[in-house]
Amino acid sequence: MDQGNMSGVTEFVLNSLSGSRELQLFYFAFFTVFYLSIVLGNLFILLTIISEPMLHTPMYFLLSNLSFLDVCLSTFATPKMIFDFLMEHKTISFEGCMAQIFFLHVFAGGEMMLLVAMAYDRYVAICRPLHYATVMNVHKCIVLVVGSWIIGVLHSISQLVFTVNLPFCGPNKVDSFFCDLPLVIKLACTDTYILQVLMLSDSGLMAMMSFFLLLISYTVILVTVRRRSSAGMAKARATLTAHITVVTLFFGPCIFIYAWPFSDLPVDKLLSIFYTVFTPLLNPLIYTLRNKEVISAMRKLRNRQINFIYIYI
After folding, report:
1. Which residues contact 96 (CB under 8 A, 6 or more apart)?
2. What is the pTM of this model?
3. Considering its fold, how many domains does the chain have in total?
4. Strands 11-14, 173-174: parallel, antiparallel or unpaired by DSSP?
5. Which residues span the membrane (predicted)?
6. Cis peptide preceding 284, ω within 30 of 0
């Protein structure tokens, strides 16, 4: 048996966003609508890209995978959080807690790498347009997506392999609505200083390096766009600015939480909501609903569905 199973803790108690019963009922309704919007919105975008041949390009291939990752990232903990708003005792088993940590880092790590891949795609399209068709081929896109998933899985395993064997003998109260690594390892009945340093060198540096790489990439792209005065470049500049906003909202909370693992601030709980709940909804709004090609494809898909229903009625 590993130390985790030998410890006295078989479940963890999760803290809700508020102790007020009225507020928890409001949160239940609010986050239910929010979560359904995330899932339905991203799945509709995914279906639109798959069904429209015009969107079978590298950019939209990467974008469809981002939508899938957003559904996964919002699903690993949000449904349980919504369900817990109706429960008096909000608990999760030891195995369930470890599973949440694993899937969080798989999906978040994979999304970080995918956002870098999307920035690379935009760099080639804008800065090296004559080489785009050669550089961003089908094989390269598949490699980028598979590589993002592999890095996410390896990153998650590296985080979990030490945590699952920690001895937990109490207390068992996690100050968040899901099992977040910095909060869980603080509950271990042993000195976790070295583990927190390892987490800093892994999750913290991964988030910061990916974020700065993205900022450098987008800066180079914006400088290139600024030198050109066509209407297309003006549109690209506005789109890139929106992309940078989403990237900042996703990476900002991750860097704050994982680059300072020794802090114990109540704001961490609110920041966790940004990259697990809010950002998965912002991504489709920024990356797709501002795009005329996607909107046109959505209308075609909607019209086909309406015609299909009309024929069979």
Report:
1. 179
2. 0.86
3. 1
4. parallel
5. 25-47, 59-78, 98-120, 141-162, 205-225, 237-260, 272-289
6. no
Tokens (6 digits) for 129? 């347009």
**Would you mind telling me the total number of residues written for the chain in this entry?**
313
Q: What is the pLDDT along the chain (313 residues), one digit of tens a residue?
A: 344 445 577 889 988 776 677 888 888 999 999 899 999 889 888 888 888 888 888 888 998 999 999 999 999 989 999 998 888 888 999 999 999 999 999 999 999 999 999 889 988 988 888 888 888 988 999 999 999 999 999 999 988 887 888 888 878 888 888 888 888 888 888 887 887 777 777 787 888 888 888 888 888 888 887 776 565 566 666 667 777 777 888 888 887 777 665 555 555 677 778 778 888 887 777 766 667 777 777 777 767 666 555 555 5
**Quick check: 156 and 105 in contact, CB under 8 A?**
yes
CATH of the domain at 187: 1.20.1070.10
State which residues form the domain around 301: 3-312
CA distance 252 to 247: 8
Residue 104 carries which side chain, given as an amino acid letter?
A: L
Q: CA 49, CA 301: separation in Å to the nearest integer?
A: 10
Alpha-carbon span 234 to 221, nearest angstrom: 12
What does the alpha-carbon distance between residue 288 and residue 118 come to, in Å, rounded to a whole number? 13
Query: Cα–Cα distances in Å, from 62 out to 50, 75, 122, 298?
Result: 12, 20, 11, 18
Q: Is 142 exposed, middle or buried (0-12, 13-18, 19+ CB in 10 A)?
A: exposed
